[in-house]
Amino acid sequence: MLDDFFVRAIVAGIGVALVAGPLGCFIVWRRMAYFGDTLSHSALLGVALSLLLEINTTLAVFGMSVLLSVILLVLSKRQTLSSDALLGLLAHSSLAIGLVCLAFMTWVRMDLLGLLFGDILAVTRNDIVVVYAGGGIVLAVLILIWRRLFAGTVNADLAEAEGMKPETINIVFMLLMAAVIAIAMKVVGVLLITALLIMPAAAARRLAKTPEQMAVVAAGLGAIAVIGGLFGSLEWDTPSGPSIVVAALFLFLLCHVLVDAIMRARAPREGKAP
Amino acid sequence: MSQISSQEGPLVQLTRAGVRQGDSWRVRGVDLTVAAGQIVTLIGPNGSGKSTTAKMALGILQPSEGEALRRKGLVVGYVPQKLHIDWTMPLTVSRFLELTNRLSKSEKNAALERTGVGHLLSSSVGSLSGGELQRVLLARAIARKPDLLVLDEPVQGVDYSGEIKMYDLISKMRTELGCGVLMISHDLHVVMAATDHVVCLNGHVCCRGTPVSVTQSDEFKSLFGHKGGAGAAGLAVYEHHHDHVHLEDGRVRHADGSISDDCAGEHCHGDHDHPHTAAKEHHHA
Fold first, then answer.
1. Distance CA B268, CA A259 (A)
2. Which of A28, A31, A157, A259 is the best residue to mutate to test the B interface, defined by the most B CB atoms within 10 Å of its own CB?
3. Which of A40, A50, B63, B249 has CA 20 to 30 A from B142's CA?
4. Is the full-model pTM beyond 0.90?
5. What is the CATH number of the domain that holds B31?
6. Are B11 and B36 a contacting pair, CB within 8 Å?
């Protein structure tokens, strides 16, 4: 039953989930979900450019995400539009430009749905190497900057005062996000990357007492969502990327409902105690 | 940013420093030094630039004019005025104490015991009351064994006897660690007794001086008498002497009767003998 392509899909998906979970925690804590969305929408433009210039797709997507982060950083320092309006503007214009560019390139036959919703079943051995090598680097850097990044997330002033250099660390964090988007695009597609980042993290919140626990639990829940989603898509013949996101949603609901139920079951007992 | 390389000079030094935001100055022309073992208290009404001044001293804000110097390799312990922990972030007190450096379990316990919240080690930071949070913030800052403690209204939300105890602890830490302390007071007149130097801000340095012990001030003796004479020994009174008045339209009338747009000029560096009025009024002792 387990064809080779299916094993490859699971291995690649778990690799992405292990990186997306911890990074997703920061996206949730820093309220950057829409920022993640904007970067991932720009990935489509990255793909178009890679076809036009005949360069590596992952690198082109990474480069485009970095470019967009820089543009956002520069624009947000000027007092013009509010940051969410800026994000919306950049997200949708980069998505639209990407689609227009692809339409112009009539010599390219592109699977647009694969780009938008992922094509995890077409993952190659080479893709797996990219996921694990890239993901390994992202995780290593994240562990290296963890304390400083977390301190800056709690309170930027405090982190600055106590020598944590939050501005430099924020730039490193943006690079990590760009890298994860480039890696994850193949698995869940441009439109669903943010879901893979924030849903396991949001589900993990109720199960964790410290930030480190939340990151580890998020990575684990992400992996479970990938496995569950892929088996679901095999069973019911549904598209794989969206199936993974639906599985993550179920995990999120399950965690919150379960923890609530446990709390309710405990509360009356504690109430009776003198 | 340039640094103070000598190990003898002040920990931090502001020279005619100011921060501009848009068209207006949040604070301007501040001269301030904090030396090792010295406690400097900033006072002033809301919006007078106390936090801005502290942030310049810490390097969080760069001065738009003037200079802010810090000693090279300075270890800072900072208690910000506000700290909000969002529900999405699981954070225990124990983990929060290690925000910017590693600590052993015994170091964490010792720091929390000193601020009287030893029982909160495994509590969630988001569930603390205002007073508990202030104690945890102070515990975190002293656990770093800083050269410079910067405390932005450290006793807000702490009850009266707790306030005296925290002041007592801060002055003990000064002796134990030999650190300098830059403190922002939430009260215009009552400062901690161990304060060596008081700087009164109102968009600029209005006046500066040394506080008088509460126990030596007749007015405050009667005011604090009912709260217990021994407790009030931790507090001191700062009597303001201003030479200019802040008018309602933001202009300033000086002692010689002249009126100017702000008081960051040379007028403000003599002895002060007039109170502030209207919106920026302080009530003086």
1. 62
2. A157
3. B63
4. no
5. 3.40.50.300
6. yes
